[in-house]
Amino acid sequence: MKKVVLNLAVSLDGFIEGANGEVDWCIMDDDMNFETFIESIDTIFYGRVSYDAWGNFEPDENTSPAERIMWQGIHAKNKFVFSSQSRQDEKATYITTDIAKKVSEIKQQKGKDIWLYGGANLIKTFINSGLIDVYKLSVHPVVLGSGKPLFEDLKQRLNLRLLNTRIFRSGVVELTYEPEQITNR
Amino acid sequence: MKKVVLNLAVSLDGFIEGANGEVDWCIMDDDMNFETFIESIDTIFYGRVSYDAWGNFEPDENTSPAERIMWQGIHAKNKFVFSSQSRQDEKATYITTDIAKKVSEIKQQKGKDIWLYGGANLIKTFINSGLIDVYKLSVHPVVLGSGKPLFEDLKQRLNLRLLNTRIFRSGVVELTYEPEQITNR
């Protein structure tokens, strides 16, 4: 079954962006092998705002070849946009109702995993609905002090199981978890 | 020169205790070798409330031998209590004014490092005064959702350099950082 993977950069104090939306602290190092992650998925879930901002992003001519290839890889995926309103879009399928049921149906399809891209509201919905199978957080060596927290309005404590860690030259530490099953508590 | 080391358990979302003061999520595993850390320090800095709660804590008869030895080790250290009011205490020295100057003087003394024990207010003062040399955070595999944040009312962004990581059986990941020097930015 496909897994829903949240793969996200966070500051050491748990913010996904600064108080003014800053993401200038996010590091993308060669040794992160982000392309390996991109190869492991065939589907991307976007919130509507994130899709409008990044769903069809085209890097400009100053972009490195590696980053161009990354964007080509991203744009080759099957895209779903979670939104209150549907929209005609030949490059994405809109989901407006019955999120848990639709996600469950998509997970039953054969293929690779699903990247839960964000933004914050969609992530919150997925966390609180128990729809995330893997949390892959790249903890950055910076404390922002304020901003948009990854975990917000959590309905209950979330127990996790550490699956893997990777350490990068930049000091970013990638922590990969799965939710602990309630029966195992 | 002695270093001031903040060594603390945090949840993945950056809380040092839950909304009702819960610390039941804190794991102390054998493989953490906490006694090695205790051996690396000869001084402990407490806030007044933390000192009253833990500064002279005596484990009861049900406590494991390993934990008794840990407490003996802790109580053999040179203790300083940061408080607005001084107090007579033959087991600790009270510091009520000129924190930065007094800390600087203690750091000049020969010997091992200093454990900044907490609580939250003292940690906040030390962070914002740039008095912490090493951040050693044991990131626990749990998201609390609310509670007392480690980093609160930070005056400015804090850039760190990753020094070390340790991964424990329990899924706790210890991340050790030093503050990045402004001249290196």
Automatic annotation (TrEMBL), chains A, B:
GO biological process: riboflavin biosynthetic process
Entry GO MF terms: 5-amino-6-(5-phosphoribosylamino)uracil reductase activity
InterPro entries given in the database record: DHFR-like_dom_sf, RibDG_C, Riboflavin_Biosynth_HTPR
Pfam families: RibD_C (PF01872)
Coiled coil: none
Top-rank taxon, per record: Bacteria
UniProt domain Bacterial bifunctional deaminase-reductase C-terminal: residue ranges: 3-172
PANTHER family cross-referenced by the UniProt entry: 2,5-DIAMINO-6-RIBOSYLAMINO-4(3H)-PYRIMIDINONE 5'-PHOSPHATE REDUCTASE, DIHYDROFOLATE REDUCTASE FAMILY PROTEIN (AFU_ORTHOLOGUE AFUA_8G06820)
Full protein name: Dihydrofolate reductase
Species this protein is from: Chitinophaga silvatica
